[in-house]
């Protein structure tokens, strides 16, 4: 009789009459380790790595392996069925989902901002617009003292030096976020380059991951690169404010990313595939993206239990630590939607 209660609980879980939780499986077989293999975004890696460590302390029998290989690599491996989950700031297209041939969920995990970081000694602040950033990456604005930069930054003594421009060399959700914004604000960029996780860049050199771009900007005087906000803050890099749709120059922060999300997610699509760059609102920072977790709808039973339990923990306890790492937690209306979507994982 002493084993009757846990056995009944497991039976209820299998029948779908009670919420699936990893701890239920752990209680049933405490010696069995569940391994979840994931990979993808460097954009959200600082907060994801913290979450995985905290969750494993809570559920020691669940081991989460995550490799920050970039969103492009994550999407490729999800399509090849070599990961249990992936993280990305770019969603799969309808064509890709059709080729996959099975349900794939895009679960919003957190919100982050992409910033133009620069290395100009003695210059603590610069203003940028979408068209200016597009012209810089198109190679049209190649020197720091170009009149286009000076016009936005009167009174700043800009050096007569070439811009040491860096972009991502790997498939990147950070790249998708930036180029989605540039495509919305520059017709030339949209027609000549476009948006994507991997592009044919007109100018600049490539570096791998947010880590690689951060290191290049740190080490190279007169450089400019784009990276997720947390990397700029943790490395002490200077980054500029960007003009939003309302015409205001806004500095990236967790709050200004939250403002962008609040302004664009009132009619959130059921599959969560939505662009929130160039959001309306005077306080919105314009280069913001969700970081999604990509998960199969059907999984081995033990992994399904662990994934669902982790996701429920993520949208409850995990969101509380997002802001401390300069990410924006999910809006409450999206948390409510995600809580329902988690139950679709089997």
If you had to describe this structure to a student in words, what would you say it looks like?
With 346 residues, the protein is α/β, with parallel strands linked by helices. It has two domains: 4-111 and 291-342, D-Maltodextrin-Binding Protein, domain 2 (3-Layer(aba) Sandwich); 113-264, Periplasmic binding protein-like II (D-Maltodextrin-Binding Protein, domain 2, 3-Layer(aba) Sandwich), CATH 3.40.190.10. The chain is built from 14 helices and twelve strands. It has helices at 4-15, 22-28, 45-58, 71-79, 94-100, 130-137, 147-152, 173-185, 187-192, 209-219, 229-235, 254-264, 301-320, 332-342, and strands at 34-40, 62-67, 85-88, 104-118, 127-128, 164-168, 205-207, 223-228, 238-239, 241-243, 249-250, 288-296. The strands form two sheets. Strands 1, 2, 3, 4, 6, 7, 8, 9 and 12 form a nine-stranded mixed β-sheet that branches. Strands 5-10-11 form a three-stranded mixed β-sheet. The radius of gyration is 22 Å and the shape is elongated. Residues 1-28 have low confidence and may be disordered.
CATH topology name of the largest domain, in short, is D-Maltodextrin-Binding Protein, domain 2
CATH architecture of the largest domain: 3-Layer(aba) Sandwich
- Could you give the order of the helices and strands? HHEHEHEHEEHHEHHEHEHEEEHEHH
Structural class call reads alpha/beta
| CATH homologous superfamily annotation of the largest domain | Periplasmic binding protein-like II
Kindly state the number of beta strands.
Answer: 12
Number of separate helices? 14
Q: What is the count of structural domains?
A: 2
What's the story with the biggest beta sheet?
Answer: 9 strands, mixed
Q: How large is the share of residues in beta strands? A: 15-25%
Q: What is the CATH first-level class name of the largest domain?
A: Alpha Beta
- Distance from N terminus to C terminus (CA atoms, Å) equals 30 Å
General form: elongated
Estimate the mean pLDDT confidence: 91
Residues in helices, as a percent range: 40-55%
Radius of gyration: 22 Å
Poorly predicted segments: 1-28
